Amino acid sequence: MTPDRPGDRPAVKAPMPAGHPGGRLDGRLVGLGVCGSIAAYKAVELVRLLRAEGAEVVVMLTPAAAQFVGPLTFAALSGHAVETDVLGLLPDQRIGHIVVADAADAIVVAPATARWLGAMANGIASDTVVAACLATAAPVVFAPAMDGDMWTHPATQSNVGRLERDFGYRMVPPQIGSLASGQSGIGRLAELPLIVDALVAAVEGRPVRQPDAAARPPRTPAVRDADLEGSHVVVSAGGTAEPIDPVRFIGNRSTGRMGVAIAEAALARGARVTIVAGRVEVALPAGARVVHAESTAAMRNAVIGAVIDQPADALVMAAAVADFRPRAAATTKLTRDGSLTLDLEPTEDILAETAALARALDPAVRPILVAFAAETGSLERAPDKLRRKGADLLVANDVSEPGSGFGTDTNRVSILAADGSREDLPLLTKREVADRLLDRVAAAMDERDALAHTGGTTTEAHR
User: Fold this and answer.
1) Can you state the angle between helices 128-135 and 114-121, rounded to 10 degrees?
2) Which tens digits make up the pLDDT trace of 222-243?
3) Section 149-171 average pLDDT
4) Which listed residue (159, 252, 397, 411) is catalytic?
5) Domain that holds residue 352
6) 266 in the same domain as 204
């Protein structure tokens, strides 16, 4: 991929922090329920104000509210997936609105419509906002917004009275002003700082209800610009299987989670993605081209075909490729009689061979090569592997460390570069690791493209 000018690939947006420290809601988790009022657009600014006070915010939308402001807006601003479905599940299969109810320090409903007031007062769990409020022991603050006549109707006033008197909810009363109907009167959503003040008062003196991040709703990956748009990224994922006989094989514990996370992150950043998939235990992203290759020999052919023949801008070898295979596989199932001795031979070194072929290419189209090294106990062999493979970057991790190996949703890795630099990352989700790695890959592409314009060499850029 060659941009019109060196370095004109969009800059990467830094991940948004959970909340600004030092605010009145520092460390708090707030559930924000948004109902179907024209004032729903003001809830976008309310998210910003809550985060400025240090809160982590999870937004819940009624179906009508989603017609006014889409979930994507709230997800991007809050850093959390938006709860819109009472039956919705989190990736770990927990019920979304129940996790919010159990972990939130407070729930604020703003704007609260006449419909929500009626459903809440009578315990009708018709949407995620009512359901979460019914399921929580946390304080609930609500700020009504509706037409003046709706607000003054005896039914609405009766419901408000019940919420305050019987449920102990705190109301931030509506104000007088211009309404969506074109009239002027009471029913306008209260000023947002007043809502924030009421929320602060509701949690004052209470300990943080659920400080354990694992018990809270999971954060979503930071929104990145399409800095890989137009690129072709090849990712190998999963483990290989080397046949012993038609039934048995030599394999490993790889599930493909890391490779799939990289493929999903690359797709989200605009890349055209080819996945060379070995044995995987997770769903492959629908937007990628998938080439199935379970054995090392098949993966070698698929990778070279995808990287050299296509060609590719980057190859990320996240697959756990077997180092050895039986020299000769049995054509029929072996019996259990007696002992079994396997004569093993080395498998193909896919990345080293691909690197040798890539060196023969024009530097302007030479792919960025990323190796992976799964070690146990120490990463001291990683620099030598980076050199031997001829890769530009190497991602090393200790698979014996809890939360940092096969079958987990998290990983703690070190990213080594051919120039001798090393970046040690904390324990992150595999999607977060994927984006941090792709930040490096995108930067290496920029350097390659810049040198192509100036007549430099790829070695100067990222070797």
Assistant:
1) 40
2) 666 788 999 999 999 999 999 9
3) 97
4) 252
5) 232-462
6) no
Q: Copy the structure tokens of residue 392.
A: 């530009």
Q: What percent of the chain shows pLDDT beyond 90? A: 65
CATH code at 393? 3.40.50.10300
Local confidence band at 400 (pLDDT 50, 70, 90 cut-offs)? confident
| Domain tally, the chain | 2
Q: Which DSSP letter does residue 237 get? A: E
Model pLDDT, residue 311: 86
Bond into 243 cis (ω within 30): no
- Taking the C-alpha atoms of residue 125 and residue 119, their distance in angstroms, rounded to an integer, is 7
Contacts of 212 (CB under 8 A, 6+ apart): none
Instruction: Report which of 459, 401, 414 is spatially closest to residue 440, judged by C-alpha positions.
Output: 414
Distance CA 202, CA 106 (A): 8
d(CA 122, CA 111): 19
Same domain, 236 and 208: no
Known catalytic residue at 252: yes
First to last CA, the chain: 19
- Judge if 146 and 51 occupy the same domain: yes
Q: What is the CATH number of the domain that holds 155?
A: 3.40.50.1950
Q: Are residues 329 and 422 in the same domain?
A: yes
State residue 19's pLDDT score. Answer: 52
- Classify 211 as helix, strand or coil: coil
